[in-house]
Design goal:
Length: 111
């Protein structure tokens, strides 16, 4: 089953410590049902020196949160997502709030 969000979507966190935070999805991890959102769930990592980072030091980066805690944003408010199948078999994501099309999930079969 396709996910209700995908990489690049602007989403709002709907529950947890970061409720109400808005950001862009940087990465989707479908195996673990998690997403990484820009500026949300920042954690501190103590990095040892490496060739790419010879200085090492303390770094802040985003950690993953569960996919069910985020919803796409339409007109500044979170919305649920419906999936509509076209006559050619293509599947599109449609926002429940306003009915606007979010994106095409999968193109239809070629004949």
């Amino acid at each position: 089953m396709p996910a209700h969000v995908k990489s690049g979507d602007t989403v709002m966190v709907t529950s947890g410590d970061f409720k109400g935070a808005v950001g862009k999805i940087k990465k989707v991890i479908p195996d673990k049902q998690r997403v990484v959102v820009e500026g949300v769930n920042l954690v501190t990592r103590h990095m040892r020196p490496t060739r790419t980072n010879p200085q090492g030091g303390v770094v802040q980066r985003e950690a993953a949160i569960h996919i069910s805690k985020v919803s796409p944003v339409v007109d500044g408010k979170p919305t649920r997502v419906r999936f509509k199948t076209g006559k050619d078999g293509s599947k599109t994501r449609v926002a429940v709030r306003g009915g606007s099309e979010l994106s095409v999930v999968r193109a239809g079969k070629k004949k």
